[in-house]
Design goal:
Blueprint lengths: L2 H12 L3 H23 L2 H18 L9 H25 L18 H5 L2 H9 L3 H11 L5 H8 L3 H23 L2
Length: 183
C-alpha cells in the first residue's frame, strides 16, 4: 500500500467509515502481529496487541500527519504497544503472588501448522540464535518491508548499526540453515 492509498484509508476512518480500517488491517495485520510477537515472543499477547492496535488506530487516526511514512508510523505504534505490555508483564512478575501456585499456568509453546509444513522449524531455530535486536531488524526489513532509514528512526539507532546488524543476522541465518541442510 502506498502512502497515498494509506492516506485515503485514514481519511475514511476519520469520517467514521470502517472500510478504511478493514483495508489497513488486511494489508498490515500480519506486520503488526509479527512486530508484537518479535518483542513479546508470545502468540496470545501478540494477538492481543494486534487487536488493540487496530482499535487504537481507529481512535488516533486524526493524529496521522499526511505526507509521512505510514509504515514507520504503524510499526512505531505497534512496537511501543508491545514494549508497554512487556513492561507491564515485568512489573506483574515483580509483584508478590498471594494465590495458589498451582493455579499459575505455564506458557504454551506453539507453532503454526504452516510453519512446520514449510520447514519453518529450521528457520525458527535459526531465528532463536539471533539476538532480539537482530530479529527485530530482520522482521522490520523483510516482513514490514521497511527501509533501513525507517528502521533506524523507529529503533533510534544509527543507520550503520542497523545495516550491520541486518547483515550479521542474515549471515548467521545462512550459516545455521546451511548446517541444518548438511545433516
Amino acid at each position: 500500500m502506498t502512502d497515498r492509498q494509506f492516506e485515503r484509508r485514514i481519511s475514511l476512518i476519520q469520517q467514521g467509515d470502517k472500510q478504511g480500517l478493514k483495508e489497513i488491517y488486511d494489508e498490515y495485520g500480519k506486520t503488526v502481529y509479527q512486530c508484537a510477537y518479535q518483542i513479546l515472543n508470545n502468540v496470545h499477547d501478540a494477538e492481543d496487541i494486534t487487536s488493540e492496535f487496530f482499535l487504537k488506530l481507529w481512535n488516533i487516526a486524526d493524529t496521522y500527519c499526511f505526507g509521512g511514512r505510514h509504515k514507520r508510523w504503524l510499526v512505531t505504534i505497534a512496537r511501543n504497544m508491545a514494549l508497554d505490555m512487556l513492561k507491564k508483564r515485568k512489573r506483574e512478575l515483580l509483584t508478590p503472588f498471594d494465590g495458589d501456585e498451582d493455579s499459575i499456568a505455564e506458557p504454551a509453546d506453539s507453532f503454526s501448522v504452516e510453519d512446520s509444513v514449510t520447514g519453518g522449524l529450521a528457520v525458527s531455530d535459526a531465528l532463536e540464535r539471533l539476538d532480539t535486536s537482530e530479529r527485530e531488524i530482520l522482521n522490520m526489513k523483510i516482513i514490514a518491508g521497511m527501509t533501513f532509514r525507517d528502521i533506524s528512526a523507529v529503533l533510534d539507532k544509527p543507520l550503520g548499526t542497523v545495516t550491520w546488524k541486518y547483515r550479521n543476522a542474515v549471515g548467521k541465518l545462512k550459516k545455521f540453515i546451511g548446517e541444518v541442510d548438511s545433516i
